[in-house]
Design goal:
This protein is an alpha+beta fold. It is built from 5 helices and 10 strands. The protein has helices at about 1-5, 135-145, 150-160, 165-175, 180-185; strands at about 10-15, 20-25, 30-35, 40-45, 55-60, 65-70, 80-85, 90-95, 105-110, 115-120. A 4-stranded antiparallel β-sheet has the order 1-2-3-4, with no helix packed on it. It is elongated.
């Protein structure tokens, strides 16, 4: 039933103890739903202050909703907003300017509802930069003619190949790595 009601991309879900569902979605809103008798019914939305809401969590009593965000800028501050579920209004915003490359995508409440925890800042694990050369007829012809690597690279680029550096810069734009890291791996930009 939910698939018929919600048509966007869902990033994170949260369930309240009183039968509500919150969905952080790609359209920049938190969609609310009521769940009863195996049915899911739309129950409005919370318009958030920033693009890319990710982490969502109801307070233990279901009256408040905390929202963490994905930060796509290397120097941006990170933020957690708390909304009143009944009025859909922002009640509190926590802004952290000392967390570089930060994302507060995981939010949770203490069991008694008196404290809010946020996590998910920084980078985790490893991230690959990729350059894939598809061997087209043109590339095959250049290789058979023993063209220089530069000639092959120029032809491949004209055919739409994404270089390591271009892939890295796209990941910078998405906020999942830094310019410094792309320069370290690929050389100067």
């Amino acid at each position: 039933m939910f698939e018929q009601t919600f048509t966007g991309d869902a990033y994170y879900l949260a369930f309240s103890t009183d039968g509500r569902l919150a969905v952080a979605s790609s359209d920049g809103a938190i969609h609310l739903y009521s769940i009863a008798g195996g049915r899911v019914a739309a129950d409005g939305a919370v318009r958030v202050s920033q693009a890319d809401p990710r982490g969502v969590q109801f307070s233990p009593d279901g009256r408040l909703l905390a929202v963490g965000y994905l930060s796509r800028q290397s120097t941006a501050s990170v933020r957690v907003d708390v909304f009143d579920v009944g009025s859909r209004q922002l009640t509190r915003a926590f802004v952290f300017s000392d967390v570089s490359q930060g994302n507060l995508m995981n939010v949770t409440w203490r069991r008694d509802g008196r404290a809010l925890y946020a996590a998910g800042t920084g980078y985790r694990g490893r991230l690959g930069l990729y350059e894939v050369l598809k061997v087209s007829e043109g590339i095959r012809s250049l290789a058979l003619r023993r063209a220089t690597p530069g000639e092959i690279a120029m032809f491949a680029s004209a055919e739409g190949m994404t270089t390591l550096r271009e892939d890295g810069l796209e990941k910078v734009r998405l906020g999942i790595t830094s310019v410094d890291e792309v320069i370290r791996v690929t050389g100067t930009i």
